[in-house]
Amino acid sequence: MNRVSGVIKLHYRDKWSWMYIPALILFSSFAVNLIISFLIPNQDMYTGGVSSVFIFIFVAGILVVAQTFPFAIGISIRRTDYFIGSAAVGTIASILFGSLIFLMALLEEQSNGWGTKLHFFHFPYLNDGTSLEQLSIYIILFLYMFSLGFLISSFARRFGKKGMFILSMVFLLVGSIAVFLLHQYEAWWIISSWFASQTAVQLAYWLIPFVLINLLASYLFLRRATV
């Protein structure tokens, strides 16, 4: 446990990457959109600016292994402890930012879009459920983005540039075949109908198995990764 806490402390020494930069990106985007909304009075303004912080957490998941894994192994931290500590940091960050966006969405709803009908944090459909469901959606989305980035970085550490190139080609081939088959059998409407029948929180719950799979695969890759 001491080694795991050491990994957590190792990550949180870089508070800029985990806390300050994503918060700065989020609120600077919000400030810009809020100013614009004042210039367009009495009109509902929908913006996807909040997605920037989700993208940043995805990038953070990619960078964390490249930046800290060799150092951690170099100071004799076990790979298992490194994985647990890193996953814990990603989970903590997901809970913190998920809670922050949830609270900002509540404030936005209560203030009628900050008095300008701005929809930056609060959106129809996404925020239609209970408070607990809305909070769960944000946290799960952050966890998925982090775990996906963590998986990509762990795979790259295990197999290197050659492995990443082969994986990219495989995804391109499989994706092309999948799109062809969906078009050939006109299955797009079945998929779109299924998505339309799900609530936002139901779709978020479907991501939980993928989060677990991403983390498990990351652990397996890191166990055999070279420094």
Helix and strand run: HHEHHHEHHH
Please give the domain count.
Answer: 1
Average residue pLDDT: 91
DSSP strand (E) fraction? under 5%
**Major sheet strand order:** 1-2
Helix content: over 70%
The first-to-last residue Cα distance is 23 Å
Largest sheet: 2 strands, parallel
Helix and strand topology:
Elements lengths: L1 H11 L2 H25 L5 E2 L4 H24 L4 H32 L2 H5 E2 L11 H54 L3 H10 L2 H24 L4
Parallel strand pairs: 1-2
Notes on the structure:
This protein has eight helices and two strands, in the order ααβαααβααα. The longest helix is centred in the last third of the chain and has 54 residues, at 131-184. It has a two-stranded parallel ribbon with strand order 1-2. The two termini are 23 Å apart. Helix 3 packs antiparallel against helix 4 (79-110) and helix 4 runs antiparallel to helix 8. With 227 residues, the protein is mainly α. Keywords: Membrane, Transmembrane, Transmembrane helix. The chain crosses the membrane at residues 20-40, 52-75, 82-107, 135-156, 163-183, 203-222.
Tag the structure with descriptive keywords:
membrane, two-stranded parallel sheet, 227 residues, transmembrane, globular
Summarize the structure.
With 227 residues, this protein is mostly helical. 81% of the residues lie in helices and 2% in strands.
